[in-house]
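Feature request disguised as a bug: please show the residue count (768) next to DNA 3'-5' helicase in the output. Example input:
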Amino acid sequence: MTSPATPAAGVTLRLLDKADKEIVKLDRAIVGAVYKFQHDFRRNPRAGGFDLKQLKGDGRLWSARVNREYRALLLRLGGDDWLLVSVKHRKHVHENLERYAYGINQVTGAVEYVDLQIVREDVLRQAPPLPQPAVPPTEVPEASAGAEVPLFADFTDEQLADLGVAEPLVPLIRKLTTDDELLGLVEYAPRHTGEVLLHLRDGCSFQQVMDQVTEPVALPERALPADDWQQAASRAQAVVITDDEQIQRIIEEGDFGRWKTFLHPLQEKLVRRVTSGATRISGGPGTGKTIVALHRVKHLVDRLPPGHTKPVLLTTFNKNLAVDLRARLLSLGGPQTLARVDILHVDQMATRIVREADPGNAKRRIDDTQVLREWRQLLVEAGESRWDAEFLSDEWNQVILGQAVNSRADYFRVRRAGRGRSISRSERAEIWQLAERFTQRLDLQGMETHRQVAERAARLEIGRKSKIDARQEQRDARSGLDNIHVESGSGAWLRYRYRHIVVDEAQDLSAAHWKMLRAMAPTGPDDIFLVGDTHQRIYDNQVTLGSLGINIRGRSGRLTLSYRTTREILRYASSILDGVEQDYDDLNGDRDTLDGYRSILHGSRPVLRGAVDRNAELDLVVDQLQGWHDIPRESVAICVPTNEMVAEVGQRLARRGIVSAEITRDGPQGDEGVHIGTMYRFKGLEYRCMILAGVSEGLVPRSSVDTWERTDPARHRRELQRARSLLFVAATRARDALTITWSGEPSRFIGPLIQPGTPCGATARDHR
Ligand SMILES: Nc1ncnc2c1ncn2[C@@H]1O[C@H](COP(=O)(O)OP(=O)(O)OP(=O)(O)O)[C@@H](O)[C@H]1O
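Example output, currently without the count:
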């Protein structure tokens, strides 16, 4: 790398999204020359060696010498503010100046650049069709693309322009007749144009694309200041190069690091939004919710006054995810960002609070199965036969603890939404009494559940908040936020723990978690920022945030573009939810949808394979793994419905000489091999290739779920929804390839995918 040097004051060099992708394809020596070029250029663009000159007849496009053979193409935004858009061999630079199309998009207000000649040559010279895997016997064939009819014949030039399609590309867009050509064009086109075209191609109407793709990134007034190219560059996916390592990192990390640099304009907007209170971001799997949460944390930290405290909390659902957030935040913001942030999963936070209040009282954590056992025991000992242990266990978990009900009086008032059976006042009194006995029983045995801890932590934090607020009220106008340092009984300073709280995987937190978090930061601007997708809720924690003091109304945003999953996988995964879309809430009592959820990534179609029995299914799994022999094993995972199957698959792989690592509560056990885990373990993860095995009726959903069908239809519906979401989560972890296997009868959730003539064709296409 080049020696350190201070860039000249007033010189700005920016890199346009996609220029980095072009650079990375060049020879290593040329890439090295680009690194040196940017270093020197930022010091003095006018140094003689660059031979900086305007392209003939062009107002804004300049070329500069990178080495003997290669030239950088730069847009001069104003003064010494330069945007690097391309690096080309010198013989191509002046070949045909009409090839360069650039301008400010009239709808989005962003700078755009495209080399029309490359599009003409690479895309319209009819590239050979992309290879597709052989269609397995159970797979539904796709409708043909309709060979010679122009793909966008139904849309006028004016409509395309209104949607923000780059106008110089319109004549070429008119020539597209196949999906391969379209995907080729999307590769080179400005990002927004690609998104619009793919949505239209997916069958969205003009209005849908306007609402879902264009409006969220359109300039509010559609009125552009005549010629403000610097502003326009800040609206584009472009990055200011501030140091030598930055450009090297962008180029070398390639696609893996793009999330750090090139946010989608909508992601960027959500990250930077100044909010007057709690904000919620939703979006389908892989749309970058976690990425937005991480950038949001960095954004908040960057705005903090200097100090050594940690006024930002970043929290998520479980330990693995918290570990991952820490690693990614470090990579995004470096140790200086990490130093101002507490990263803990919610139960860890709750435990910390409870321990702090009651040090030395460590109890044994028990899970829901043990809780049920304890309930059964209690009812036997009490000779109580009016109530059934499962009902009481659920009531205790979901209503009493789940909603952090603190007193008998509160229990009389609480809404028992989704609990099916209604209960009278006197029954509530009985249940409350039994619940008290149950809690004492656990206490005596030195046992506790996560939910109990969360509920206690919520109570403790609410108590602490009341004290802070009471003191604050007593103070005079002097007492700003930073002055709320009031001593507690112990003499320690009492203040809000955090100023900002950012929550990932918000759909799975319980009411008690929310109450705890709410009490930890003062209500006000930028207090709570939460991201989540209720379609991925896999624990039974439905909440209405408004009733828990977290008011998100009017402050929500939605991401729709998947960066992880290909269109083909997304289409199959989305069809798992077909017919039940209306059952998903927005965390605040209203509905949430996946409308507009799309991908612009392209890959092979998922493979669906049935076997006569488990033994034969395991052979299919091994077969598929062998087919992926060229993919690093750690980028491949097998997801199954039960722990027994984890063991079975592991043994079969071992017999075939394939190393595997089980994903446990603490992450994968071992550094090498294919990851195997139950569906719950895959929350928030991502793999290049995935096999979902055991997707059979009886396992997905597990057969015991249907016992609720007659006795408790509400619960039956909830359990089915959860099982569906679990499969949906699992299927959307795959980036490039997905294979689903089963033995015997396939799961009812994938039925539509494997029976030709069912609604799958229509609905699945809608979700592409
Ligand atoms: N702007 C971006 N540029 C490049 N890659 C991105 C961008 N945003 C997200 N990604 C990538 O997309 C993938 C999914 O992102 P992320 O995990 O944030 O999605 P999510 O919405 O939280 O997903 P899920 O709900 O499934 O957990 C990651 O690999 C991430 O790096």
